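Fold it.
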Amino acid sequence: MKKVCVLGAGLVSGPLIEYLLNYDEVQVKVADIEIDKARYWVKNHPRGEAIKLDLQDRSVLAKIISEVEVVVSMVPYTYHGYVGEICLEAGKHLVTASYISPEMKALDPEAKSKGLIFLNELGLDPGIDHMEAKRLIDEAKASGGQVVSFISYCGGLPAPEANNNPFGYKFSWSPRGVLLAGRNEARYLLDGQEIVVPSEELFSHYKMIEIPGLGIFEGYPNRNSVAYLEIYGLKKAKTMLRGTLRYPGWCLKLKKIGELGLLDIEEREWRAKTYAEFMREYLRIAEADNLKEKIAAKIGLQLESDVMQSFDWLGLFSQQPLPARKISPLDLLVALMVEKLKYQEGERDMSILKHEIIVEYPESQPEKITSTLIDFGIPRGHTSMSRMVGLPAALGVKLILENKINLKGVLRPTVAEIYQPILAELQELGIKFKEEKVIL
């Protein structure tokens, strides 16, 4: 019997685990430090096993990995290199839904030499975005065209009817990961010019993006888009931009959060016991001063502004106790957001992915091709985000178990032998793109 281990039973692991348990006599071990989470997904399935695991316990982790053929790492991305090293020692394949880190990339030579597949970036973004991008690009090239512009935006958001808080956002994946992304510098290519956006300017650098049927969203650049000229084989493109979508208002609020220093990841000891006291201590605001007025003045806003009201709603000025005395400002913010920006029972989330490419042809007019995916979560069922992340990872495992990937080493799903079967099965599972072509 084929054996797979899923490390991590968090927000996006459910569809992955369910798919594997329903696939062709595969035994699935699900390991998590909170064993009840693992048990929840395994239930009483005869081919499922829930295991309590502390990732820091290397010997236990190594034993679990040694007993399976493929490991799926759904733990925080910072652990993937560590897990990958153990997979190398044990001679096991690895699948993740995270970006290829320098630590993961360094494992490529040894993975190749051992004939192992370390398949990464198999989620939504990164993941489905890569696969649909390469499908469009490869089809354009096969028709004799050259892609001169590639613009893509992706977002995981509340469905319109669930967009009912001041931030226009709710967490369907790692809350800390969402905020950490706001610390990244961004680079992209526009009309042949490379634009570099420092992290402190990220949320000032957005455009209004229309998604048909849903309205207007804010789109801001995501990490290093320029690197995708090579990854996607678009060395002659003049525009290359990959961005993030949010409801209007998000960018200004996150910009002001950044100006207050609340994205700082340095852990320290606080004298403060409440959030209001923390804000005074962190920003050095005297007890005699009006806290809200001082903060509004510090970030150049009116006291009654939408941003200040949203901070008040979140609890930044409240008497709510701090979750810990030694903690970073970012994690204090995460603790508030996890509680206030969560989905209520029956609410749906929504995933949006929009690719827009411009293709030039030697003997005909250029055309603009738009491919859009809009997907909604299932009320009281799986979230859209969990399906968008978990199912591609599951399908990657399936390809490995069926020996349908000939390449070895550290990979992403940008080659046809990987993306074609995964996109085809995703379509069967109801995850579909709508494509439109316009002659320019």
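The radius of gyration is 23 Å.
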